[in-house]
Amino acid sequence: MGEENVEALPREDGSAEDGEHGVADPPEARPEEYDAKAKGLPRLQPDRSMGQSKLSVAGAGYIKLKMPVNPVPDLQFLTFKSWWTEFNTKRYMEICFDMSTELFQIILDKEVRHLDKDQIYCPEKESLAGVVGKDTKIMSMRLHEKLSHNQHAESMRRAHLTCWDLHVGAKLNILGKPTTLLQANLETGQWLDYQAAKLTTISNALEEQLLKYESAHQIPKQLRTHTIIGRGKPPPGSADLRSLLKRAGMLKDRLSRYRPIVANGIMAYL
After folding, report:
1. Is the pLDDT of residue 81 over 70?
2. Axis-axis angle for helices 260-267, 241-256 (nearest 10)
3. Taking the alpha carbons of 63, 64, 65, 67 in that order, is the dihedral positive or negative?
4. What crossing angle do the helices spanning 241-256 and 186-210 adopt, rounded to 10°?
5. 248: exposed, middle or buried (Cβ count in 10 Å: 0-12, 13-18, 19+)
6. Are 240 and 3 in contact (CB under 8 A)?
7. Which of 68, 104, 206, 267 gives a 20 to 30 Å CA spacing to 133?
């Protein structure tokens, strides 16, 4: 039997090392490396044909998945807004995350709206313009604490927050103040929804294969597919990518007990 040239499994953007936008995929999401040539196993080659609607396994490890298409492949910054009200004044903060440097740019008082004009312009009252006036500040920093979804301790074990920790509804510690990301711009929402759809497709494919070896009752509840009825469509960019990554990694570990080649092949779509 002749030797084959075994290449690294390609990622979705065609590279074998880093993820999209130059951001390396988190370690827990990467498939385990293995030497297919030494073990005499067939080479894995994900087929990204959009005409394939379901997972198929032809032989050992050959898989096909219909994956979503990235609507914003050149996106570099994830941009969110947050706001709060004090002294009848609504203050807006902009949070930008650079996916190439993994630095946050925080813009305080990007916009200020006075809800009670009398506290500034009424001649019969003492003006509070000096207290509630606009005071824009721009800062660049790394953030380390995610306070939402029981992820605080986990976030502190990592070096700093990354794009996988950000979504609409996430609560972060910014300058000592718990700050909720309330809104994402259009491109950020599209990128987050694309990543969520990709991770969900991978997780569902892993679960489908795992059900061939374990019953639904054996799979932990948090790893099974859930259908939420009556909640309506969630806002763009609200999916928690970190939780989806964790689910995919745990399903991959369980499937690897039975079919490690299939599990690695599915995870190669990340």
Report:
1. yes
2. 160
3. positive
4. 20
5. buried
6. no
7. 104
Q: What letter would DSSP give residue 159?
A: S
Q: How far apart are CA 49 and CA 260, in angstroms?
A: 23
Please report, as a single letter, which amino acid is at residue 234: P
What is the three-class DSSP state of 83?
Answer: strand
The pair of three-digit structure tokens given for residue 171, joined into one six-digit string: 């609560």
**What is d(CA 69, CA 48) in angstroms, rounded to the nearest whole number?**
10
Q: Spell out the alpha helix ranges (H) of 106-236.
A: 118-121, 129-132, 152-157, 186-210
- Per DSSP, the three-state class of 139 is strand
Average pLDDT for residues 2-7, to the nearest whole number? 44
Answer whether 0.90 is exceeded by the pTM. Answer: no
27: Cβ contacts below 8 Å, ≥ 6 apart: none
pLDDT score, position 59: 43
Phi/psi for 113 (5° steps) reads -125, 125
Q: What average pLDDT does range 250-269 have in this prediction?
A: 92
Q: Does residue 167 contact residue 238 with C-beta atoms inside 8 Å?
A: yes
